[in-house]
Amino acid sequence: MSSPHHLSVSSRPGNVSASLQAILDDHEGPLHMRFEPGVHRCGGLRLRSDLTIEIPKGAELHFIPDYAAYEATSVSIVAEESDRGMLVAADASNISIIGGGRIFGDGATAFTHGEDGDMGTLVAHKLRPRVLVLENCRNVRVEGIRIDDSPMWTMHFAGCENLEIVGVSVDNNRRMPNTDGIVIDGCRNVRIRGSSFRTADDGIVLKTTRREDGRLTGDCEKIQVSDCVVESRSCALKIGTESFSPFRDISFERIRIEGSNRGLGIFSRDGGLVDGVRFSGITLACHETPAGFWGSGEAVTINTIDRRPEEGPAGRVSNIVIENVTGSMEGAINLVAERPGDIANVAIRGVHLKQRPGPLGTALTYDIRPTIDDRFDRFPQDKGAGRVNAWRFGPDGKIIGLVPYPGGMPGVFARGVSGLSLDDIEIDRPAQLPESWNASVIVELDRMVGA
């Protein structure tokens, strides 16, 4: 490969997206585009191969807070009904986004229209762009940048290979729905390290989606996440719920989870198996959230639920290791298989947690959302029914998918799990158990011995 051409972009008033896109389109060969310190305002940009975007300290990329500004940067994967991104690329290779500068999405102010006090969230616009969407790309590096206030998923990598995410910081509004920190969707050979993700939705999430035309994005395998900090009002470290293809060979190591709802989560719904996942060296603080958020204060949640029974069962979850976990939780550790044996060979060891009551009482149920009743194609049109992909009210006026623990909340709850191994588990509970807590620390139902 020839040496890159270096080009500096000075800060100037107005929308600079047309001029920037012209540079990207017209220049042949490797290009290193450096934004000079100052504010740069633009709409969507379509990136290409052999490109380095440098946003150094003091440079700020402010995206125009209008969904229409991203008509030319649509993407093939629809997320939460939206199909546009701010920085996008498809079928490209050798892309780097580097530097110590900042990217602003203006999500909480420009893409909301009120708040839902009961559920604890802002009410977001239906159509919102993601900040970064790369599809079917190879050899990608994102390093050192900070992204603030994303309107939707912050970084979405779909069908990509050889990703390196280093020293990145994401800081989103903690009440803005669907603002996942980083989404690894059907990707292979991924390393995420030394980064922080603070957001209202999932922090670091692995998915295997199905596209609008029915094509599968692909398997998610050989994923390594290490030395990160995550704060999430949903699930800090998550696999699923979109799970059309398999997940294999995944590790999360030395992660600090702060002020989060759920800590570690695996959610199988759509047929893809989950095999070979390790969580190790995790410190966490999980607290209750209003019922509009999935889960409440759980250190660990693993569940398998058939979301599309007409197409087939949820994929099996097996060969899971959870070790050396410390911290606190206001909920419990729960593992629930809709069909006994669909969660198998789970080793939980070296787990030392404080379990304390939360102020809301929402942790006293375990949460199996999303279910078949939450699907877009089955959701009622009545606005009073709930919110799509969030919650739905049943005939009794209660949220569907919240199930009371039998006999009260224990420290560890397992239902239908095969080959569960528990070793060196310490759950520090109040001497006087609160109302609706189970006297047993560990409760196993429909226990299966074999794999």
UniProtKB/TrEMBL annotation:
Keyword check for Hydrolase: yes
The organism's place on the tree of life at top rank: Bacteria
Coiled-coil residue spans: none
Keywords of this entry: Glycosidase, Hydrolase
The keyword Ribosomal protein appears for this protein: no
GO BP terms, alphabetized: carbohydrate metabolic process
GO molecular-function terms, A-Z: polygalacturonase activity
Entries under Gene3D superfamilies matching the protein: Single-stranded right-handed beta-helix, Pectin lyase-like
SMART domains: PbH1 (SM00710)
Protein family per UniProt: Belongs to the glycosyl hydrolase 28 family.
Entry-linked PANTHER family: PECTIN LYASE-RELATED (PTHR31339), PLASMIN AND FIBRONECTIN-BINDING PROTEIN A (PTHR31339:SF9)
Annotated protein name in UniProt: Polygalacturonase
